[in-house]
Amino acid sequence: MPITDDVQLPTYEELDVQEINISHPVMKASAMHFGKYCDKVSKEFMLCRIEERDPRKCVPEGKAVTSCGLDFYRQVKQNCRNELEKLSKCMEWTDYDLKFW
Questions:
Q1: Cα–Cα distances in Å, from 22 out to 25, 50, 76?
Q2: Which residues, 6 or more positions from 55, have their beta carbon under 8 angstroms from its beta carbon?
Q3: What is the pLDDT of residue 1?
Q4: Are 68 and 37 in contact (CB under 8 A)?
Q5: Of 33, 36, 46, 101, which sits with the fewest C-beta atoms within 10 Å of its C-beta?
Q6: 14-49 confidence digits (pLDDT tens)
Q7: What angle do CA 101, 68, 80 make, to 5 degrees?
Q8: Quick one: what percent of the chain has pLDDT higher than 90?
């Protein structure tokens, strides 16, 4: 679909959210728990993407997923940071694909 002048794109202010600043190994090590924690909002986002077929209409749902992720990683940092860091380092150093073994 080509972009023409009549297509309204979201502004930078609408798209601006705090980023989740973590490394790939940490994200991979926590993916299963993150998926369970943010299951509902993630499914709402994907449902919106499928139904609307226009990502511009799903910006609020995408922001909700990011917000849930920020909340998840704040809780991880408070409660089990050392364990997650050990797991992610183990995955990083034992397998180039970061697979669970």
A1: 8, 28, 12
A2: 49, 62
A3: 57
A4: yes
A5: 101
A6: 889 999 999 989 999 999 999 999 999 999 999 999
A7: 45
A8: 62
